[in-house]
Structures are given as C-alpha cells and as structure tokens.
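Recall the central idea of this unit: under ordinary conditions, the amino acid sequence of a chain determines the structure it adopts. In this exercise we apply that idea directly, starting from the sequence alone.
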Amino acid sequence: MHLRLNGLVFAVLTVLVAILGAWSGEPDLQRLWLLPLALLLLGLSYERFTVNRAKAGLTIDAPEQGLLGRAMPLQLLFHHALGRSVDIQVAPAAPEAIEIDTAIRLVSVPPGEAAALEVHATPRRLGQHEWPEMQARIAGPLGLAWWSQRLAGRYSCKVMPEMLRDAGGRMSSISGGLRPAHFNLGAGAEILQLREYRAGDPQNAIDWKATARRGRLISRDYTEDQHLDIVIAIDAGRTSALRAGELDRFGHYVNLAARFAEHAVANDDRVGVMLFADQPLATLAPGRGIGAVLRIRHMLAAATPKLAESNPLNAALRIRTLVRHRSLVVILTEVDDATVAGQLASAARLLLPKHLPLIAGISSPEAEAMRDAPAHTWLDPYESLAAQEYSSRLERNVRALRALGAPALVTRPEHMERAVFDAYAEFRKRRRV
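Accordingly, the structure predicted from this sequence is:
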C-alpha cells in the first residue's frame, strides 16, 4: 500500500491535531487526533474491501511465436468486476530473454470492458519463455492509497529464428506452410529431360503441360542447373554467448543460418546444419525443399550456447562423414579467438580441397569505435591500443585462412548476412562448388 494525496492529507492532519492537543494541555483536545486517524483507517478499510472485490485481471494478447531480434507488439488487456472506472498503474515485465519498456504506465479501466495497453517486446534468445507476473497498483475509490497487486497474464511465447525479409527470397509464414517464392533455377537455357516430380522440387520447375497430359506432376531438369550441397556449421561454444550489438553472437549465427537456408533452398540447393562446441552437438544432413527449412528452423529454435570451448576441428571431422562429395561448408564462428584460430586453420586444411569452407565471423563494433576514438583521459590511449591489436589479430587470422585457400570474412553484425549471401552468389556464379 502507498498513500495518495487524500491519505497523506489525513495523515498530516492527524499529526498536527496530536501536536496541538499536546501543547494545549486539555485532556479532551489531547484525544482529538483519534478522530482523523479513525476516519483514515475506516477509509483505508473500505478501499481495501473495494479493491479485493474488483478482482482486477490481466490478459496478454500477442502472437504465440516471436522472431529472434525482431520487435513484436503485445496488447495488455486489463479488466475488473466493479461498476465504476478503476485506475491501474502497471510496470510491464517480460522474461529475462526478452527486452521490454519497463516504464510505469497508468491505465483507466472502464466498467464492463477491457482497457488495452500496447507495448513492444524484442526477443533476444531462442526457446520457450513463460511471461512473469506484472507488478500493479490499483487506486482506491476514495483517493487514499494505491493497493499493490501482482497480475498474471498466463502467456507463453516461443522464439524462432528470423526469416528472410527481402521479396526475392521470401517464403510465406511457417504456420501457413512454407512455399518458395519466385527464384532463378540456374543458368541453363535448355531442358535436359522431364521426370517424375520429387518432394522438394521448386514450383517453377514443374512442367504444367506435361503434368496435364499425364495426370501427375512432372518436373524439368535443366542442362546446367547447379544443385549444391551446403552444410552450415554454427559455433555454440562459450564465446558465442558474448553480446554483439542487439543480440549475442549465437543469436546472429542462428538468424543468419535460418535465413541462408531459406535462401539456398529457393535456389534448389540442399542444406544441412550442424551445431558444435567442444564436440558436435546436433546435426541435420543436407536436404532439399520446404521440409529441410522446417527441420532446420525447429532444430535452431531449441539450441542454446554451451559453457565449453569451441573446437572447429572436431566439427570438420564430423562434416567429412556427413557429406561424401564436394560441398560448400559455411562455418560461423569466432575468428578473433587465438585458440580457435589455430583449430580453424586445421579444420580448413582437413576440409580442403574436397570441400569449399567459407569461414565467417563477427567483429566487435565497440572495439572498432574504441580504436578510432580520440583520447580524452589517460586511459583512452591504452584502450585504443588494445582495440588496434584486436583488429590486427582479426586481419592476420583472416589472411592466414585465405592463404590456405579457405574464403574468410569478418564483418560487423549488421553486415554479416549480406557478406555471406554475396559470397554464396559469387561461388554459384563461378561454379566453385
């Protein structure tokens, strides 16, 4: 309970009357302070009874699934059982893995209907998250006090990896069944053959005239279509839990992997995923079509970083048994870690020349800003030198990997997706895989 203006007035009045009574020396005046105190206690009792009878409640209206790193709207619906309007102060709350504006809001809830308060929440980690109770204060009808209550919304949200946002590679929502958007089947201009439709064939590979003649789905094969096998290896070790911009590094890796899988499947390539830390944690063999995208997204949605040092060499050994012929291996890991860098070089040697490893890492925006910032205090030059050493180590590691024949890139989190997509397009164009 917290006193409001009317309650404070009664409390101050009680104290003043008690002081005046004590100074007067009159026995009757000395007991006069009991009157405003009794009125205050009586009013508070009535307010408490009314607030209990209000049965204030909260319902959260929001989608059952959220996308990692993308803000989603939440409607907080407040209701009560009284025949008059009720003022409610609420401090919005969310699970630890979801960011939300926690500023206290005041909502006036009319009788017989709900009052809506819209807030935006941004998921920062994957998984299923139960919404906690929210701390609220309900105004008493006499204006004497705010009465504290905890309101349970009974809402659960499953956070999934991101989806493509560009129109060229977008698929419809998962809930409605993924369907490939319009995409290019390859560079070939001639049809090699007609064959029976296979699950996962893109929609515009179907020969509709032949389908109509034969009464069943018939697909076309082109003379120069490329059908690549791709394995995306995601570092889920200890350092992947470090924050990089709006998400931790593992969140950036997962979002990139999910979108890249969707993009590659739209090109009729086969895509698989592997999570690794000190050992391989989970593996999906390369698959084609909608089913492969769904399996990848569901596996990634259940993934979390592990408190173990990453070992890309063990991941490369597992990849060699997973794919038997030449494949594109996209390794999303830390290139700046001195220990991992040596293992990355060994992993690249193990994969080359049979496979083409593309190694992608995230640079630190904070370190880049610190490297170029002017000095204002005695500590700034040392911080700048440390940031310069960090950047130099990144460049050395990237050059060493490229010298082995393994394409490598390190970019800021917001540029990583574009860099990987461009590299993939260049590999297809030059037919390096």
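The longest helix spans residues 380-403.
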